[in-house]
Design a protein that fits this description.
The structure is a single chain. With 247 residues, the chain is α+β, with helices and mostly antiparallel strands. It is 15% helix and 34% strand. The protein contains three helices and eleven strands, in the order αβββαββββββββα. The strands form two sheets. Strands 1, 2, 3, 6, 9 and 11 form a six-stranded antiparallel beta sheet that branches. The chain starts with a helix and ends in a 7-residue tail after the last helix.
């Protein structure tokens, strides 16, 4: 049984796709990602995991308009692992984040960029199985690439389990660095064995090592453009009688 569950989950994780669209489609309903513009919050951004202030920061935009997330993947992995332990402590007992030193070229493959990446997760939000969604964000990179995901979860054995992921690569060209660039994709929530109920955004900045910023993260339902049965019948009728031919 356990082997079947793992295989089904694996198959679901492979079921991600970007629709062939030239521009973002129309959306309906409310925004699903809470505080995707990162403007709300007191000490930490609402709707997101707490930044570690070593690899992920909640800061002012590099262009001076509002707030956003900052990522730094040029951090030694040993420093990050130390910070993971510190983040488990209560805030009043937690020491400030500190780097032992800025990594050298010799140490570049011992960095966050070459291993785990600098990453953060949104809180859960509802997803409807079988529906299409638009995932979009703005990315400002000084060099690093980013993997952005919407990960889908089903209830398995009473727990939320990841069974699906939509992957949005954010790889700006050299001439696009040091400027905001929008990335987006359309994905359909699906799995052959499990009903997906929830989603989370996962942002991961990695190689080459350096700094980057993210803002305006959004997930919204795509408007249903499938013709109704009556529209299909009318179109077929016109075709039969030749009414759809150009005059």
């Amino acid at each position: 049984m356990r082997r079947f569950v793992l295989l089904s989950v694996f198959l679901g994780l492979l079921l991600f796709a970007q629709e062939d669209e030239e521009k973002p489609p129309k959306t309906v309903g409310q925004e699903l990602v809470k505080n995707g513009d990162f403007e709300a919050g007191k000490d930490v951004p609402e709707g997101w995991d707490e930044p570690d202030d070593l690899t992920v920061f909640w800061v002012k935009s590099p262009t001076g308009k509002g707030k956003c997330l900052k990522f730094d993947s040029d951090v030694l992995l040993s420093d990050l692992k130390r910070r993971w332990k510190e983040m488990k402590l209560p805030k009043d007992k937690r020491p400030p984040a500190k780097m032992s030193h800025r990594p050298t070229e010799k140490e570049q493959y011992d960095t966050v960029a070459a291993t785990y990446g600098a990453q953060i997760w949104s809180h859960y939000f509802p997803l409807e199985h079988g529906k299409k969604y638009l995932f979009r964000l703005r990315y400002f990179s000084k060099g690093p690439k980013m993997k952005a995901f919407v990960k889908g979860y089903a209830e398995i054995d009473g727990e939320k389990r990841e069974v699906y992921r939509a992957h949005l690569p954010c790889n700006p060209e050299k001439e696009e660095l040091n400027n905001w660039k929008e990335f987006w994709m359309v994905f359909k929530v699906r799995h052959p064995s499990y009903k997906i109920k929830w989603g989370r955004v996962h942002l991961l900045v990695y190689w080459p090592r350096g700094e980057a910023f993210v803002d305006d993260v959004s997930v919204r339902r795509v408007a249903d453009t499938t013709p109704s049965e009556s529209e299909k019948a009318l179109k077929q009728k016109k075709k039969v009688y030749g009414e759809d031919k150009k005059k």
